[in-house]
Amino acid sequence: MQFIDPHIHVTSRTTDDYEAMQAAGIVAIIEPAFWLGQPRTKVGSFQDYFNSLVGFERFRASQFGIKHYCTIGLNSKEANNERLAEQVMELLPLYVGKEGVVAVGEIGYDDQTPAEDKYYRMQLELAKEVDMPVMIHTPHRDKKRGTTRSMDVAIEHGLAPHMVVVDHNNEETVKEVLDRGFWAAFTIYPHTKMGSERMVEIVKQYGTERIIVDSAADWGVSDPLAVPKTAKLMMEKGISEADVHKACYQNALEAYSQSGQMKESDWQEGVAIDQREKYSGNSVLRGGQTPKVKGSSGIVEN
Amino acid sequence: MQTTTYQANLEQAREFLYTLIQKNASPEGVEWLDKQLSKLRQEWDYRTFYFSFSSVPRFLGKASITYDEASLSKANALREGFTPQDWDTTQITRTYILLFLPHDDLKEYALTIDRMCETADMYEQQALYAALPLLPHPKELTGRAAEGIRTNMTNVFDAIALHNPYPADYLEQEAWNQLVLKAVFMGRPLYKIYHVDERANPELARMLIDFAHERWAAHRQISPEIWRFVAPYLNEEYLSELEKSVKDGEPLEVEAALLACSENTYSGGKELLDQHPDVKGRIAKKEINWQSIGDRYNVNK
Ligand SMILES: [Zn+2]
Questions:
Q1: DSSP state letter for A286
Q2: Is there a contact between B119 and A51 if contact means CB atoms under 8 Å apart?
Q3: Distance, CA A34 to ligand 1 centroid (Å)?
Q4: What radius of gyration do chain B's Cα atoms show?
């Protein structure tokens, strides 16, 4: 079975993870621009980070046969540094239109401060202007209210619900998100967000229409195999293969292909792997390792 | 007030590119492009400009373009050496958009080009560097071009180095030599570098000879094309290298070394050439030339 993990921060993961993900059937991933665990202090750090999302990380993923997409945005936490936030906003138009950028994201609220609200709204406007989907990060604290507010504001700015993926849902938020016509994504993340068992129950109750499963695996204790593992549990608990396919592959594809930057044919023939190629002088191989070669590389042409 | 240097008539260049776009992109794609540019003409706005430039593949696709003789000679008439023969629809369109960038304020213009290069993905970089021969203020962009040459992404390097008249026309000798040396390193087809012979220089010849020594020490092959750059400076000092190539080299290396000898009046070279009457004859008949050597070498590689 093939899977898409539409929310994973692979910049923070190892090549072992990539190998395991590929072996588990993950064919495509989306890496949302997010926070690195500590605040950035200069706009140049954002620029280099965005460059890695559209550049080196995409190359690195391809080296393991995985098609990499990303979303670009100013995250909610860092919106609170307004001086920096202004500069990042100036940078965004250079990135949102790039190949393989499938949404403006992840944006939204963390502390639900006025500054977060301001930059969230500005980015919704940007998404509307360039006709791109939006990926919303919902807050960990005061989640229910924050989720409702995120959707209210999106509607207020004229975004159609089908263009908005609301992520990090739980039992408390899912109904409203689905009722209002938004995509409802769930992060299977140990301890803090959602567990596979609970995910199964949600699918049993709500079905798989507009439901999306992701791992949000990052630099924390998290599991880059959360999507295939949850899929396995779903099957064991009697959820049909068609439903699993929808929640763990098809819905993400439908939501993000609205960007015009993601299509199944991008990976169906296999992502060309050529570990002989280099990107900016860097290779994922280290001394003495033998490169794997399959097909020709889509990254660096000869 | 500073006057702007132009390499090509911008209006004609735009027209040329637009005709190609119309012929090769979908009507919806062209419509999107027209809309973006009419927005920009009404009121210049960097947001729209950046977004248009990067979004081209999404709206116009990457179909390859077949060029007829007429368009290629028109390109050359527009700007000597301008050879868009490998450019696809996206690259043509990105170049077209780039030619609308305001350039009266040089500082602002150079800053924007820098900004675009620094934030560009691989294919955008390819388009930006390949567009160099059409851009205004060419002298002010040499630092940017030199920066581009430092890339290790093959297609970005090729965009500057191959079929591009800008480096030969504007790069300082140091940057030029780096370009050629790096092309040798990366195994690029040297004969596709525009005006290679015009920019041959003794320093480059010396660097290439040193490079050959390194390769030989490591028991590795060298590109036969490097002898082209040594040919004008062939002398007693370099003769032994050529002799070695003729003695131990693959047939292509032998031909290249002897071709180099034939291009110089130095007597040592002539003697070496005379020892191989068969190759000498084929050189005289023009069966062996740098283009054919480069072609065969790059096919076999
Ligand atoms: Zn995230």
A1: -
A2: yes
A3: 6
A4: 22
Residue of chain B whose Cα is closest to the Cα of A96: B51
Searching chain A, which residue's CA lies closest to the CA of residue B32?
A: A130
Residue that is written with structure tokens 């290439």 in the block: B208
Measured between CA atoms, how close is B154 to chain A, in angstroms?
A: 6
Residue A194's pLDDT band, with cuts at 50, 70 and 90, is confident
SS3 (DSSP) at A189: coil
Of A188, A190, A198, A191, the C-alpha closest to A248 is A188
Set of chain A residues whose Cβ sits within 8 Å of the Cβ of B115:
94
Surface of B (178-197) touching A: CB under 8 A = none
Contact criterion met (CB < 8 Å) for A95 and B54: yes
First vs last C-alpha separation in chain B: 52
Residue B154 is nearest to which of A91, A130, A301, comparing CB atoms?
Answer: A301
Instruction: Write down the ipTM of this complex.
Output: 0.84
From chain B, the residues in CB contact with A99 under 8 A are 54, 57-58, 121, 123
d(CA B167, CA B160): 7
CA distance A273 to A74: 32
Residue A106 CA, ligand 1 centroid: distance in Å: 7
Chain A residue numbers touching B151 (CB-CB < 8 A):
280
Cβ distance of B51 and A93 shorter than 8 Å: yes
Residues in chain A within 8 Å Cβ distance of B47: 93, 129
pLDDT tens per residue across span B197-215: 999 999 999 999 999 999 9
Tens digit of pLDDT for each residue in B268-299?
999 999 999 999 999 999 999 999 999 999 87
Going by C-alpha positions, the residue among B224, B182, B173, B223 that lies closest to residue B202 is B173
- CA proximity to A124, closest of A91, A97, A84, A156: A156
HSE-up (13 A, CA, CB side) for residue B279: 21
Both structure tokens of A166: 């609301």
Give the pair of three-digit tokens for residue A260: 């015009």
Total-model pTM: 0.89
Query: Mind listing the pLDDT tens digit for each residue in A8-32?
Result: 999 999 999 999 999 999 999 999 9
Tokens of A147: 């989720």
Closest by Cα among B260, B264, B267 to B289: B260
Rounded to an integer, what distance in angstroms lies between the CA atom of residue A185 and that of residue A170? 9
- For A30-45, write each residue's pLDDT tens digit: 999 999 999 999 999 9
CA-to-CA distance for A273 and A280, rounded, in angstroms? 17
Lookup: tokens for B245:
């190539």
% helix, strand, coil for chain B, step of 5: 70, 0, 30
